[in-house]
Amino acid sequence: MAVGVLAGGCATLDTSVTRPDSQAVQLPYTESRLGQLFDADLARRPGESASLLLDEGTLALFQRGVLADSAERGIDLQTYIYDDDDSGIVMMERLFLAAERGVRVRVLIDDNGLASDTVLPLILDDHPQIEVRIFNPFHLRARWSRPFQYLFEFRRLNRRMHNKLLIVDGTAVIVGGRNVGGNYFDQDDDANFTDLDALLVGPVAREAADCFDEYWNSEYAVPAAAVPNPLSEKRRERLIETYRARLSALDDRRDRYEALRDAFLEALEQRKIDVHWGPARLVADPPDKVDPSATPEPSPVLAALRDEWDRATREILIASAYLVPGPDFSSNILAKREQGVAVSLLTNSLASNDVAVVHAGYAKRRRELLESGARLFEYQKFANTPSREDTPSSGASLHSKTIVFDRHHAWIGSFNLDPRSVELNTEVAVIVDSASLAAELAQRLEHDMSPERSWEVHLRRDPGAQRAHLEWHGIHEGESIVVRHEPDTSPLERAAVQFFKLIPGLDRLL
Q: Which residue pairs from 476-480 have beta carbons closer than 8 angstroms and sit at least 24 positions apart in sequence?
């Protein structure tokens, strides 16, 4: 079906646009700038990869720029959301500059994560070295038509590509929970996400490149050229000038960035930055998970998670931004507790959760989790640390999806412990067998579980009471306090959660 205009001026995808296959660049380490920094170590450590945690948001954006600037031949970016804010523009500038020096750039974005069909990534698709594809697209492009499309294609459109990868030259990769947008990099004025990524150099980057190719060459990845351009040439040029003006306003940051970039690469070369080493493997769902007519297969990500869970013998630390436990989850925790395994869970409080209906799916099983023996922590809306005092926003929300098994295996990715990640969305994660990386990640999780940043939920039974009640313990504004209802929320917000909890079958859609 070629591009057409339906009633109301709603254009459709041009499905006649060709979609040639292409393969990721996989350079020898000696020909990659980052690979050269680790080539000797990689030779001495066959099968292992180097890794760095990317914790603080501004640093995570900076590292993405460093990767793009270090690219020699190829950059592949896969993301669920790409926002058209300053962070998105800065990221696209680094990709554009790489393309200008001859680097091939491929960008794959889930269609649900595009704010419009005039965002910068689609415009940059015109560059001969940049190709953009959108994943699992809506066929009618007008945003007002999407609720109606859900009515007719709900089973397909409700499944999304949730993967996040940035791969350079097949030698280095960033994997984790961050999309491209200001609130993932501590750049939003209203609320920012606490999140975490890992930068890895070595064989695991080859696995990430192969994973990207599988998605890029799948039938669900549609070239940006298939999206009808709603802009006249004059309006298009005006929009590009607006982007250029916004970039010019960031000139002072650009000079500082370039100085920091060179200092960072020099510090890596001189081994002034702690780097973790260990075998690492990437696990990912297949792209056809978004096809409701395909034969359902067990999620490879879920299978890997179950294997790590079963092997744990001492401790499991979990951060899951969206935690919607299934009916067996509490019994699985109880079984691990009976084996002597301590289990701690960190998720969002109602106040910090950006999706209240998801909190309802978690809250209905919260009591079960506590009774199974897990320690349960809920992230505070106003969590802050000295290292984040310059964060401009007044609110915080947990977005991490990380796990530490026995202080030895580190799990970092896009997978939440909820039915959506298990059954509907495609996900990706990296598992690193490194005691030093796991120790650093555990320290990060324990910091976020501290009473200054999270509420610990307890069950308390008063004398003579037939049923224990929930309490939230934490430190708020420097004082230790105990709260007997969802902290930092209004009665209306709490009533809404109680209503959502009554809706049958809602859990499977969250």
A: 476/380, 476/382, 480/451
